[in-house]
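Q: I'm building a small set of examples for a reading group on sequence design. Run inverse folding on the following structure and report the sequence directly after it, with nothing in between.
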């Protein structure tokens, strides 16, 4: 073993250091369609914050880049390591430390997956409501990307549920910020600064998460519409009417066909309606009482028909569950169909019709196919771009991102920038803002060892 390998082995134990040649390929990539995979020089698997601190201290002394890794489900290449660097995998720090029912919080290690957290909170009647498609995602990864997902329309995104963190700084120091309380007015909010920082400012070694009561009754309503424009116009009106759905998803015709075919899922929609519907709204309602739910479903059905839905289907529980699973697998369906990139632009939700119309124009002009689905209630669309020519695709993406930002939106609503979208971020964001972010990065990590290839060059 090299000197560095020996120093790392002293910190975490030799069995938890993998070196060049013995590093499995999975540590070199995430699920991004375009980020270039890179094998790291070392993978280390610490078990405690003290060990994380020790690893970072070794890296800091030798100025070796460190890339944190959760479950590797990210979609923007944010955990792709530096070729000479260390992957610090949180896979052994995967415990739920406490479920505090009095304060409605969970204290967890960063490597715990959302699926495991859901399993462990179930008996308490509480839940962690953040639900990005990949339930195998880790809490640390979701904090670092500020993950969103289907339930954001009601519950908000990761940022709204992280009350406190313990984190290891680039110097190796361990700091704590926030705690089991929902408010603080005590200097800069370091907890929130770390949320969404993609492993570039500090490594989260523990998190205090806000939990919500589980609702006992839910219903899933599917509404086909003749055009995508009608759907996106219906969304702000539904919400303005007081609807408080758990999920409000838009799925275009191609994506619905691909995802339901992949899952062999028949939804009972007559052929004639299917042929004439270019898009669907999927609305999930959740209530604590069956009576309230029934009334809400009835009201929603009437509203949807008024807003132009061709019909309204209240799905049986099993079909509803499978449809949501199929929707969560839309990324895999797009990948299997040969998508070249998937983007997650966000705009004010009332501007969604204009973004989708602009995407149509860009697709036609460039001879590309742009199809998708999205968290319509959040104005966040996941567009799969089919354009194999790299230069042409670059101009398509640039035009899409410009269209989104011109509408008052942002390049990424929830997947992050990582390495895959860095050039667009650096070119299209306000330079003054990027420069301020650089200075924040420098204050946290003066030698640039934490995920140095992400966000900035
Ligand atoms: C099929 C599919 C559907 C998806 N749907 C959604 C969706 O609807 N909404 C959504 O938001 N996302 C979605 N994602 C993306 C992905 O699940 C999220 O980005 C998730 O937050 C990544 O978590 P992870 O544990 O896999 O992180 P990783 O991919 O391992 O890492 C992501 C980032 O977090 C950093 N990181 C990891 N752990 C730590 C830590 N402890 N401290 C500091 N930094 C850390 C990494 O360095 C990297 O920058 C989807 C992904 C897939 C594959």
């Amino acid at each position: 073993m090299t000197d560095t390998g020996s120093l790392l082995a002293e910190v975490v134990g030799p069995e938890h250091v993998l070196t060049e040649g013995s590093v499995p390929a999975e540590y070199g990539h995430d699920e991004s369609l375009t980020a270039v995979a890179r094998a790291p020089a070392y993978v280390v698997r610490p078990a405690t914050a003290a060990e994380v601190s020790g690893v970072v201290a070794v890296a800091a002394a030798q100025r070796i880049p460190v890339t944190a890794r959760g479950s590797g489900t990210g979609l923007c290449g944010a955990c792709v390591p530096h070729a000479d660097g260390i992957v610090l995998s949180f896979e052994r720090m995967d415990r739920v430390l406490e479920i505090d029912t009095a304060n409605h919080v969970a204290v967890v290690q960063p490597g715990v997956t959302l699926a495991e957290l859901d399993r462990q909170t179930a008996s308490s009647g509480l839940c962690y409501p953040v639900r990005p498609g990949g339930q195998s995602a880790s809490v640390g990864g979701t904090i670092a990307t500020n993950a969103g997902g289907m339930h954001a329309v009601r519950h908000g995104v990761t940022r709204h549920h992280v009350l406190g963190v313990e984190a290891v700084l680039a110097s190796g120091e361990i700091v704590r910020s926030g705690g089991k309380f929902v408010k603080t007015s005590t200097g800069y909010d370091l907890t929130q600064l770390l949320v969404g920082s993609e492993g570039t400012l500090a490594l989260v070694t523990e998190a205090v998460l806000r939990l919500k009561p589980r609702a006992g009754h839910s219903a899933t309503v599917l509404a086909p519409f003749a055009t995508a424009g009608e759907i996106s116009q219906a969304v702000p009106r539904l919400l303005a009417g007081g609807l408080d759905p758990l999920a409000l998803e838009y799925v275009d015709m191609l994506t619905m066909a691909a995802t339901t075919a992949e899952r062999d899922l028949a939804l009972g929609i007559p052929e004639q309606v299917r042929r004439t519907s270019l898009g669907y709204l999927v609305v999930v309602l959740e209530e604590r009482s069956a009576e309230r739910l029934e009334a809400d479903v009835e009201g929603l059905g009437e509203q949807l028909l008024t807003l132009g839905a061709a019909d309204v289907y209240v799905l049986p529980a099993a079909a509803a569950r499978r449809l949501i699973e199929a929707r969560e697998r839309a990324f895999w369906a797009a990948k299997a169909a040969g998508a070249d990139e998937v983007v997650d632009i966000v705009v004010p939700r009332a501007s969604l019709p204009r973004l989708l119309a602009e995407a149509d124009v860009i697709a036609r002009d460039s001879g590309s196919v742009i199809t998708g689905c999205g968290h319509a209630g959040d104005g966040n669309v996941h567009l799969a771009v089919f354009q194999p020519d790299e230069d042409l695709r670059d101009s398509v993406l640039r035009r899409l991102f410009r269209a989104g930002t011109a509408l008052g939106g942002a390049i990424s609503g929830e997947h992050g920038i990582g390495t895959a979208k860095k050039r667009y971020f650096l070119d299209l964001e306000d330079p003054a803002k990027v420069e301020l972010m650089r200075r924040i990065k420098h204050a946290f990590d003066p030698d640039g060892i934490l995920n140095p290839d992400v966000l900035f060059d």
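The chain has four domains: 3-91, 96-213, 217-331, 338-417+426-440.
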